[in-house]
Specification:
- The complex is a heterodimer of chains A (317) and B (505).
- Chain A is mainly α and 317 residues long.
- Chain A has 13 helices and 4 strands.
- Chain A has one domain.
- In chain A, the strands form 2 sheets. Chain A has a two-stranded antiparallel ribbon.
- In chain A, a hairpin with a 2-residue loop joins β2 and β3.
- In chain A, α3 runs parallel beside α5 and α6 crosses α10.
- Chain A is globular and about 60 Å long.
- Chain A starts with a helix and ends with a helix.
- Chain B is an alpha/beta fold.
- Chain B folds into 3 domains: 234 residues, Rossmann fold, CATH 3.40.50; 166 residues, P-loop containing nucleotide triphosphate hydrolases (Rossmann fold), CATH 3.40.50; 68 residues, no CATH class.
- Chain B starts with 5 loop residues before the first strand and ends in a 12-residue tail after the last helix.
- The C terminus of chain B is likely disordered.
- Classes of the chains: A mainly alpha (317), B alpha/beta (505).
- At the A-B interface, α8 and α9 of A face α10, α11 and β20 of B.
């Protein structure tokens, strides 16, 4: 809890400063758009967080978004499949890709970094090929307006993606922090050997994290596709896995595994989006976008490190 | 005797909240083996770290050859002839023996290239001195733990060590390797090197020590001269009381076998198989050299490294074991040798460690019931006398003995039928050892079958009701208690089957 508190304070301070420097920040329209983005990013960041808690990584998420977007567009616009079926199909595909990751990592014993790096390259190439390297889109969304409104609409002023995120977060919070499965996930991430010696099927637990990550990437990917409304297969979703990893790490997930929380991941996601917003609102050249984000993440991690060393110094007798 | 080459006078060291050392004196004479004994936390390591230059003392003085010297760093210590062979080996196994010995002080050629010829030739000198039959060009990864340790000793000697500190040097050695190390220590003594020997194995101390200095709670508890060194005297000084260590024979051993292992084959020794029985209420000791396949057999029976052949039956019923889950379901549990990596998750609380193997029992609808967890953890921590501030203390913050008790608590809460202890008291001090032995015996008495793998001869002879001896993947003999002697076990451990013994496989 104390760990998330630091990032939370940083987030609040950043918001206040931003609101003072440019009051547009607290405009309803700006906050709405911010919440929408937090919703989309938060969903797949939670998935990545689960994978990171097992001590793994998933670099393929961004490319999966591109593949999903292309497929979704083809299903809806070209094949005129019913919206529900199209969505189920693409989410099933991303979940299956998660299963493949999990299989290669636990059964074939290839390092997660390598497996998902290959996925990053492979799915991007596949998306471009399937799309004929042409930008795909949804046009006026004739026939699947309801589906589109899931991404672009709001309920009593709250963007639907944000509502979906809250819903998923509540479920995942219970799963991660209260359930037997969650305890196993942390145990496997901390010390896989000891978990196996306690009779836990660690392969299954690890693979399940990749499957869940694929599932959540599917949900977020559908929202993202409608949010951008046009999918350029060579750039759609580029770097998104890194946003997710950054959010998880800022939120207290350790890349060594075994540490992290849903609350932390949400705060981390929000922090990244507010930063993005800050760059826009303060008129910082958008070319500096990545530089600002990199610097803040580094500062956040450094502050965390210092805080921990202090605590460790206190514990030593 | 001559003048001491090293004198530590009234050494005091305080850490926040703890007085680690309180006016401790220590003298070391040339060419003697001085054993430093004491329970964990008695201050042995702190004292040695001061001598080795790792810590600075708050009070007191260190004198070499009667001259007061301040040791401010590890290099100061080695300049004064102090060599330190740590319990955890500090060698790089991707380098060769010679490269390890001269790491950071490589003889140079033309000022910046390593002179390999000189490097290897110089190393040979020390290897010979240690009677080590390996080449300096061998990669460390190809050597056994015992040989790697010898490389560390060679390194200390190459630094002209006059005083060699050895911290638990035998804790991961086999019986023969231990014998060999003790021989080397005797040779070094004859060459005039003084050795400070730290060990929990009192048998070894008895064998090689010229004097024993005992510490207790950071103070000098006493010194024993050569002729006074015996088990009871050392223990009395260590714990300040007598410890009962008489063998308690089992009250009743159920003659029907509880566990029958038939033709078990492990991945490590696919061409050999082992068979044995364990009866309800008995402690079956497993002796042998490290690498004899004892741990592999245990891991196969427990299912973490599933057997590739053979059967295990419990109360006459065959059980299929293909994962630890299967073994746990049948009541077969393993207390692994490497408790820090396999037995416990050090970063999580005691409570979570205890409930991990059967978390579903403390959960409803997939959600963990923390109250139920607390209840069972508290109960077993009390039963086993785990010394910890609370059940929320992280397992990594406990002493070795208490960690071992937590591992035990994991299984005791699940009604064990067979408990396999792999090196149950490695790195555990005398007081906690006695507690663990008593626990083992009372478990046996309550009808649990116990297998105890141990490389500590005293432990094997002191606790087992029968002793199975393994050699290179086979059981070379199973001795009844009356026949079990150090000699008989060693014979079997090096592969000489006794005619009377029942050889498996």
């Amino acid at each position: 809890m104390r760990k998330e508190l630091g990032t939370f304070v940083l987030l609040v301070v950043l918001c206040i400063v931003l609101a003072i420097l440019n009051p547009v920040f607290i405009d309803a329209a700006n906050l709405q758009n911010l919440a929408r983005l937090i919703g989309i990013y938060g969903i797949f960041s939670i998935g990545l967080g689960l994978v990171i808690i097992t001590g793994g990584i998933d670099l393929s998420v961004g490319s999966v978004f591109a593949l999903l977007g292309v497929l979704l567009s083809i299903f809806l616009v070209e094949w005129h499949l019913p919206a529900a079926i199209a969505v189920l199909a693409v989410v099933a595909v991303t979940t299956f890709l998660g299963l493949i990751n999990g299989f290669l990592i636990t059964k074939v014993k290839i390092q997660p970094f390598i497996v998902t790096l290959c996925g990053l390259l492979f799915y991007r190439g596949l998306a471009r090929f399937v799309a004929g390297d042409e930008t795909k889109g949804f046009g006026a969304a004739t026939g699947f307006e309801t589906l589109q409104s899931m991404a672009t609409g709001s309920v009593v002023g709250i963007p639907t993606p944000f509502i979906i995120l809250i819903f998923i977060s509540l479920i995942m919070w219970v799963v991660l922090h209260r359930s037997v499965y969650g305890r196993y996930l942390f145990a496997v991430g901390r010390n896989e050997m000891a978990a196996r010696y306690s009779g836990i099927n660690s392969d299954l637990i690890i693979a399940s994290a990749y499957i869940l990550c694929g599932l959540l990437a599917g949900v977020a990917g559908v929202l993202l596709a409608f949010y951008t409304n046009s999918i350029s297969p060579s750039s759609h979703g580029n770097f998104y896995e890194l946003y997710g990893i950054a959010a998880a790490v800022l939120g207290g997930c350790s890349l060594r595994g075994g540490e992290g929380s849903i609350i932390g991941i949400l705060i981390g996601t929000a922090l990244l989006q507010v930063l993005q917003n800050l760059v826009n609102l303060l008129g910082i050249p958008s070319s500096l976008n990545f530089a600002v984000m990199g610097a803040v993440i580094l500062i956040g991690v450094l502050a965390d490190q210092l805080l921990r060393q202090r605590q460790a110094a206190k514990v030593v007798k | 005797m001559d003048n001491p080459i090293l004198e530590m006078q009234k050494i005091g060291k305080r850490f926040p909240g703890v007085i680690a050392l309180d006016a401790v004196d220590l003298q070391v004479f040339p060419g003697e083996v001085l054993a430093l004994a004491g329970e964990n936390g008695a201050g042995k390591s702190t004292l040695m770290k001061i001598l080795g230059g790792v810590y600075q003392p708050d009070d007191g003085a260190v004198l070499f050859d009667g001259k007061k010297t301040s040791i401010r760093s590890v290099s100061d210590a080695s300049a004064n002839g102090v060599g330190f062979v740590h319990q955890e080996l500090n060698v790089l196994d991707n380098l060769t023996v010679a490269e390890n010995v001269y790491l950071g002080r490589e003889p140079l050629w033309a000022g910046f290239l390593v002179d390999r010829q000189k490097l290897n030739a110089d190393t040979e000198i020390y290897l010979k001195r240690l009677g080590l039959n390996i080449s300096g060009k061998t990669r460390l990864s190809e050597l056994s733990i015992a040989q790697q340790q010898m490389v560390e000793i060679a390194k200390a000697l190459s630094l002209n060590a006059r005083i060699l500190i050895m911290d638990e040097p035998t804790s991961s050695l086999t019986l023969t390797e231990t014998e060999r190390l003790l021989e080397v220590i005797k040779e070094l003594r004859a060459q005039g090197v003084s050795i400070i020997y730290i060990s929990h194995r009192l048998g070894e101390i008895k064998e090689i020590a010229d004097r024993v200095v005992v510490l207790r709670d950071g103070k000098n508890a006493g010194v024993l001269a050569r002729e006074e060194i015996n088990h009871d005297n050392i223990v009395k000084l260590m714990v300040g009381r007598d410890i009962d260590r008489t063998y308690h024979p089992p009250a009743t051993i159920d003659k029907t076998s509880l566990i029958e292992v038939r033709n078990l084959q492990t991945r490590r020794y696919p061409n050999h198989s082992i068979s044995f029985n364990v009866r309800k209420g008995e402690i079956l000791g497993f002796a042998g050299l490290v690498g004899a396949g004892r741990s592999e057999a245990a891991q196969a029976i427990f299912g973490v490294d599933a057997p590739i052949g053979g059967t295990v039956s419990l109360d006459g019923k065959l059980i299929k074991i293909s994962s630890a889950r299967d073994a746990i379901k049948s009541g077969i549990y393993l207390i692994p040798e490497d408790r820090r990596n396999c037995g416990l998750i050090l970063e999580v609380p005691i409570r979570e460690n205890i409930t991990l193997p059967a978390l579903a029992r403390y959960a409803s609808a997939g959600l963990v019931n923390k109250e139920a967890e607390c209840k069972v953890s508290t109960e077993y921590c009390e039963k086993l006398n785990v010394k910890a501030p609370s059940i929320e203390t992280k397992a990594g913050n406990l002493s070795g003995g208490n960690q071992q008790k937590v591992v035990l608590a994991k299984w005791l809460s699940l009604n064990p039928k067979l408990l396999i202890f792999d090196e149950p008291t490695r790195g555990i001090d005398v007081g906690a050892k006695a507690e663990i032995y008593a626990l083992m015996r009372s478990l046996a008495e309550s009808g649990v079958a116990i297998v105890m793998i141990s490389s500590d001869m005293e432990e094997i002879l002191g606790e087992s009701d029968r002793v199975a001896v393994m050699h290179e993947g086979r059981i070379t003999g199973i001795l009844e208690r009356a026949e079990a002697s150090e000699e008989a076990i060693m014979q079997l451990a090096v592969g000489k089957s006794e005619p009377s013994a029942v050889a498996g496989g």
